[in-house]
Amino acid sequence: MTEIVANLHRIRERIRACEHDARRPAGSVSLLAVSKGQPLASLRQAWELGVREFGESYVQEALDKMALLPDCIWHFVGPLQSNKTRSIAERFAWVHGVARAKIASRLHDQRPAALPPLNVCVQVNVSGEASKSGVALDEAAALCRHVATLPRLQLRGLMAIPAKLSDPQAQRLAFRSLAGEFQRLRESFPGIDTLSMGMSGDFEAAIAEGATMIRLGTAIFGPRSPRP
């Protein structure tokens, strides 16, 4: 059994156990395989094991992989720069991390009309870290309202990357604040359905607090290859 096979088996078992412990329906949490910095062979192995949704942060690397791996749903999970929005709007199905109205508008204007609307999660900076993108909790609703006015975008929900914490209870507190805002926003935006939170070191806490999508990279693939 290869490392990726073993890792995916273990992760899927842990997800099912977390769903059960949180009294959530089986299958209520989806797995996004964050494959940035990973070789195509690793993605192909995950694909053979049923993974169909991949997250990438580097546009050109992602485009190269898209050309060689069929029938996948591609999520952009990296920082959004204005000069990269066209490729993202044209080639990706999801964007996690829209934190500015200007970027949302650019993605909308550059999304080809022939494609389905681009799925968008608004990024919230739940830990208040200056080094991370994202709007404050009390600013999330305003950005969601802007995204909802753009017909070539589909507002799907919220995402966050909290500060790294080792204590599970502290992890849960950060996720709880995002989950609370998500529930409040559902009163105004009943169509939103995605709470994208939880990574390799904290996804169990995220599931306990209501995550519907977790983003795992090293837990599946191991350490990333260094960028040239």
Write up this protein:
With 228 residues, the protein is of the alpha/beta class. The chain has one domain: Alanine racemase (TIM Barrel, Alpha-Beta Barrel). 41% of the residues lie in helices and 17% in strands. It has an 8-stranded parallel sheet. The longest helix is centred in the C-terminal third of the chain and has 21 residues, at 168-188. The model has no long low-confidence stretch (mean pLDDT 94).
What's the structural blueprint in terms of helices and strands?
Layout: H1 3-21, E1 30-34, H2 40-48, E2 53-56, H3 59-66, E3 73-76, H4 85-91, E4 94-98, H5 101-110, E5 118-123, H6 140-148, E6 153-159, H7 168-188, E7 194-196, H8 203-208, E8 213-216, H9 218-221
Parallel strand pairs: 1-2, 1-8, 2-3, 3-4, 4-5, 5-6, 6-7
Helix pairs in contact: 4-5
CATH architecture: Alpha-Beta Barrel
Spell out the helices and strands N to C. Answer: HEHEHEHEHEHEHEHEH
What strand line-up does the widest sheet have? 7-6-5-4-3-2-1-8
Overall pLDDT score: 94
In CATH, what is the class? Alpha Beta
| Through-space gap between termini | 30 Å
At the fold tier of CATH, the topology name is TIM Barrel
Unreliable sequence segments: none
Q: What would you call the shape?
A: globular
Largest sheet: 8 strands, parallel
Treating each run of at least 4 consecutive H or I residues as one helix, how many helices? 9
User: Rounded to an integer, what's the Rg over CA atoms?
Assistant: 17 Å
The secondary structure category is alpha/beta
Strand content: 15-25%
